[in-house]
Amino acid sequence: MEQNQSINYAAELEAIGKKAKIAAEALAVTGDDVKKLTLERMAFRLEAAIPEIINANIRDTESARRKGISSAMLDRLTLDEKRVRQMAEGLRIVAAQSDPVGKVISRSTRPNGLEITKISVPFGVIGIIYEARPNVTSDAAGICLKAGNAVILRGGSEAFYSNQAIAKLLNRGAMDAGLPDGVVQLLPWSDREAVKAMLKLDRYIDLVIPRGGESLIRMVTAEATMPVLKHYKGVCHLYVDEKCDIAQAVKIIVNAKCQRPGVCNALETLLVNRNIASEFAGVFASAMRENGVELRCDETFLELIPESKAAAEEDWSAEYLALVLAVKAVDSVEEAVNHINNYGSHHSDGIISSIEENINYFYGHTDSSTVYANASTRFTDGGEFGMGAEIGISTDKLHARGPMGADELTTYKYLVRGTGQIR
């Protein structure tokens, strides 16, 4: 784990890249039966080594506590038996899904008789750079494999030992099923220079996906010589409309903010129609007090909830990842949408309303990857969307957006069949 200035990262990564390329070529022509078997073997390997994984994770969490890591990050880092079994179950769910490779996207016959078929195919080798959450190691490897891709992983230094243990087990599971060594590889260094070297490996890596803080994503975007699929921060909003079930609205808000505040689909800003602000404030403030939420409010709610703090301009674009919530009164659904499109991160945003016209306006005008009506933003998740595990939640528009499963890790090619045609 220690940095070693004598390591020739370019040469080491060249070897990793070659191994991944060979594995990807084998995976590209691997049938779904073998991929299902591989994912089952991976899940078995994880469950059979639960004590080994937890012991590795304890090394990581003890080190993180000594460094003063935040409670939100520590929660993401920690593994127990339940979470390891959830990782294994995620692999089994992915295994049971339909094969995303080889699907016919379109088919046509030209006037000259050429038959043109567009089909889904794997990318090849995918690089994934992520922070803190060791379950991403399993999720990413499983989804990449289902889509016929080899994967090169680089986890955060906080989860170094956990990631090493998990990746080794997953690769063994793939080899158990007859696939070549190198289906799953994880960089064995925590040095940032290794990441920079990895981002120059465009000869082998076809796509890189960063998952983590904004600074990581900006660094990857600036350094990478291959395409990058970005997952920026989650500044998620809910707008409480002038006509709605207030008790239901508060229940949704509590779930979206408090159930797990340290994740990217947790609520960060609440917008409330000014016409119901007075009626709404009392029951809302009581629920927030019960859950230990600090409120940062505009002038309207500062007056209605005296114990709250005054919001500053930066609060409207803040991703707190903690029990802190920004609150603002707005005059209309149009003003709410303008605020979200201006200050949000295009992740997950919702309206709580009984006015169908306003719901439809919100759906049509909110420029986010996932838009809700009368539900918590916490559902933006591959598992909740029926994908099993997820590779992440893309806030990009090319080529995937929102929760990404195996389907989103394929590209396409054209198959053209002729009978001797020349141009």
Summarize the structure in short.
The protein is α/β, with parallel strands linked by helices and 423 residues long. It has helices at residues 9-28, 32-48, 50-66, 71-77, 81-96, 135-146, 160-176, 192-198, 214-223, 246-258, 277-290, 299-304, 333-343, 356-365, and strands at 104-109, 115-122, 125-130, 150-154, 184-186, 207-211, 236-240, 267-273, 294-297, 309-310, 324-330, 348-352, 370-373, 392-394, 402-404, 410-417.
Describe the fold and architecture:
The protein is an alpha/beta fold and 423 residues long. Helix content is 42%, strand content 19%. It contains 14 helices and 16 strands. The chain has helices spanning 9-28, 32-48, 50-66, 71-77, 81-96, 135-146, 160-176, 192-198, 214-223, 246-258, 277-290, 299-304, 333-343, 356-365, and strands at 104-109, 115-122, 125-130, 150-154, 184-186, 207-211, 236-240, 267-273, 294-297, 309-310, 324-330, 348-352, 370-373, 392-394, 402-404, 410-417. The protein has a seven-stranded parallel beta sheet, sandwiched between helices. The longest helix is centred in the N-terminal third of the chain and has 20 residues, at 9-28.
Rounded Rg = 24 Å
**Mean model confidence by pLDDT:** 94
Order of helices and strands: HHHHHEEEHEHEHEHEHEHEHEEHEHEEEE
Helix content: 40-55%
Q: Classify the oligomer.
A: single chain
Largest sheet entry? 7 strands, parallel
Give the amount of beta strand, in percent.
15-25%
- Give the neighbour order of strands across the main sheet: 10-9-11-8-7-12-13
- Tally of helical segments: 14
What spatial form do the alpha-carbon principal axes imply?
globular
First-residue to last-residue Cα separation: 59 Å
Number of strands: 16
Structural class: alpha/beta
